Amino acid sequence: MGEVIKMNECLERKVYSTYAELADDMVKLAIHGKTSVAVLFYEDAIEMLKELLLFEDVNAKSVVINEPEYDGYGYEYYITLDDEFNIYIEPAWHEEFKFDNGKVTPEGYYGTAAYKFFIDGEANSAILKKLEEGEGVEIEFLFKESSPLEDLEIPDGLTEEDWKILLDNTKLIQDEDGEITGIALDIFGILAEFFK
To answer: CB–CB of 38/90 below 8 Å?
Structure first.
């Protein structure tokens, strides 16, 4: 992951607790004739695609998501939802990697334009220089809250990798006030990981 984007006065901070909330905000913008772009990493890009496709009028026009294990791409993706409810997903980073003394440079990123941007808080700050801000463009950060599960110690008998698989397939159940009322395990997700 790149360096963490630094907040400044022109940027608003917003925390999304679910992908559905972000998808809903993007669809609301499309309803009002505005294009939005989410700048997310691999797993988040896949989850956003799933959430956006749950909306009746939304169509996937062009989706390019590279499996990091196979091609080594570990940078951000642009998830665009245009004013006609079309989804376009593409790597934000050029194939010819551009570095300067080991640091990512803005020239390595493609430019993109939108009315509103939703940017993962862990995205590289170099990406900000490639976002084309037209009139009325707002830039908003997407920050992930860490799960209380991540603070738990690894139980005896589990490897760190097995513990991560378990955590990745565990969801907290919360009431309207955000109080944790239980947990849900994705048994099929866990089994799929263990029997790869």
So the answer is: no
Q: Residue 105: how many CB atoms within 10 A of its CB?
A: 14
What is residue 100's three-state secondary structure? strand
φ, ψ dihedrals at 131, nearest 5°: -85, 120
pLDDT at 55 over 60: yes
- pLDDT at residue 148, rounded to an integer: 63
Spatial distance between the Cα atoms of 52 and 50, rounded to a whole number of angstroms = 6
The total number of residues shown for the chain amounts to 196
The DSSP 8-state label assigned to residue 128 in this structure reads G
Structure tokens of 147?
A: 């799960």
Structure tokens at 173: 């159940």
* % the chain with pLDDT above 70: 66
Residues 162 and 168: their CA atoms lie apart, in Å, by 10
The single-letter DSSP state of residue 151 is G
Task: Encode pLDDT of 74-104 as tens digits.
Answer: 889 999 999 999 999 999 987 665 555 555 5
